[in-house]
Description:
The chain is an alpha/beta fold and 145 residues long. The protein has helices spanning 11-27, 42-47, 59-73, 90-103, 126-131, and strands spanning 2-6, 31-38, 78-84, 106-112, 137-141. The chain has a 5-stranded parallel β-sheet with strand order 3-2-1-4-5, sandwiched between helices. The longest helix has 17 residues, at 11-27. The relative contact order is 0.23. Residues 117-124 have low confidence and may be disordered.
Amino acid sequence: MTFVVPFDGSARTKAALARARKLARGVREPLVAISVIPSNNSRYARKMGWLPSDEPFDGGAIVSTLRAQVRDIAPDATFEYETCGRHATANSIAKPIRKFAKRNDASTVVIGSDSAGRAVTQASSVGGRISSDRAYDVLIVRSRG
C-alpha cells in the first residue's frame, strides 16, 4: 500500500505532502508525489509558478523544479510525473492521478485543498475528481502548516 499526493508546488499541495510524510512514516508505507504537466502549455506553467514570465516552456526544468520541491519537504518520498495534453482541464489533470494511484496500489490519496468542505466537488476541482474514486481512501488537508 502507498500514500499518493497530487503535487503542483502550490502551498496547499506542499501542506498535503508534509502531512502525508508524517502519516506514511508512522505506518511505514511508501510515499509518492505525482505531478501532471500539460505539454507545451507555457501559460499554465507560468500561472502555476513553474516558469518565469520570460522563459519558454521547458518540461525538463519544470520536472526538476517540482522534484526539488518534493525532496525539500519529503526527502524519503518518490517523485513521479505524468504529462497530459496541452489544454489543462480538471479532468485532464485528475485522470492520470487516479490511474497512477490505482497502478501503485494507493491506500490513501492525500489532497491539499483551499476549499475543502465547501467546494472540493465543484465542477472545476481536480480534488473533487480524485476524491470521487472509491479505489482508495482520501485525506483532505486544509491547513498549510
